[in-house]
User: Fold this.
Amino acid sequence: MSAPLWLETPEIQQLLHKLVDRLDEEDIKGKQSAHNFKLNRKNWPAFECADLETERERLWSYVEWLAQQGWVDITLDKLKAPQAPYERNPKLKILNAAALRHATQRPQRMINAKEQWRIAVHEHLQASDDIKKAVSNYCIEITGKSAAAVIQRLNSVFELAAEPLLLREVASRLFWGHSKILDSLKRQEMIAIILGRDECPFPPMPVQLQIFLPTRGYEGVLFIENQTTFELAIRSDDDRFEGLALVFAAGFRGSATRLRTRSRSSLYFARTGDLSESAINFFENWLYQESTLPSWFWGDLDYAGMQILAAMRNSFPNITAWREGYAPMHDVLLNGGGHDPEMADKLLQKRVERTGCIYADSVLLPVLHESKRFVDQEMT
Assistant:
C-alpha cells in the first residue's frame, strides 16, 4: 500500500521528525528504551497551536493511522469526563523506527567523530574503566584513519614511556608520521591519563637545567624545585650551600630519565658561577656518565614534592631529601604552621606512602600524614 499524501504535510512531518529526533537522542545516549514520547506543545507545536477543534481532530486521526500501521502505540490517561482522546495526556511509544526514518528520509543516524571516539575508547583502549571514561572526553581525528585504528596505536604509548623521547617523536611513531598530533595541552593531558602519570612524560623540547657551579669547587649537587629559591640560593652566603652545585629543573621535568641523556637535556650555566671548561666538563661527566658524586633534592614539603623525589630516584638512585633544607620545614609543621591544601590549590595532590629515601620516609612523610598541612619552599 502506498503512503498517504498527508504524510508529506508540514504538520505531520513536524511530528515525524520530532519522533526521529528522539530516536537519535536515545541512540547517542546508548539507551534501549521504549522511546516514550509525550504529545505536548514542545514535541508537536502544530497540534497544540491549531485554532479549530476540527483541525485538531484531523491531525489526531493521522496519529491514530500511525498506530494502526504499527509505527507507534498510543497510551492515554484514564477517562475522567467527556474528553477527546488527544485531551487525555497522550503518549506515544515508537514501535517501527525504520518506517519513521523512511517517511522523513532520515536513514540510520550518522555517528559523529566524538561518538566514534568514545566507542573506540571503550572497545579498544587497554586501560581501566576509569581511564577509559576520562580518555573518552578527548578526541583525535586523523584523515583516512578510523577512531579504532587511532586508539590501537595509542596502546603502544606504554612501550615508548621508558624511552627519553620528545613529544613529536612519540606522535610521529604512534600516528603514521603525524608529528604534531600531540602538540596541544589537552592531548598531552590525555597521554598522562593513559599512562597514569601526573603529567605527560614526553617533553615538547629538551629538559632545560639551570646550573650554578661554585668557584671554589663542590662535593655534591643539590636539585632545587622552585626557581625563586634557586635564584636566592645562588646569591646567598648561607653556609648550607657551601660546596654544592645548585640545579633548577622545573617541577617534574627534572625527574625524568631523559634528564641524564645528553641529547634530551640542555644545560645553562649561571655566569656568576665557575664557567671554566674543566668545571663544566666535570659536571657534564657526572650528569651523563653516572659518577658517584652525591646528590640531594629540596622542594616544597608536600606530596607533590615527595613525588618528585621518588621519581628522581629512578634517574639518580642515590639522591635523598636535603636534610638541611627540609628540617626547618619539618619543624614548621610540628609547631602547627604551614597551610591547608585548599589554601594553595593543592587539594588534588595524591598521598605518598614511600619515596625510597630513608629520611623522607621516616621523618617527612609521617609529619605530612599527621598534620595534613604543607610548607612551601619559599617560606624557609
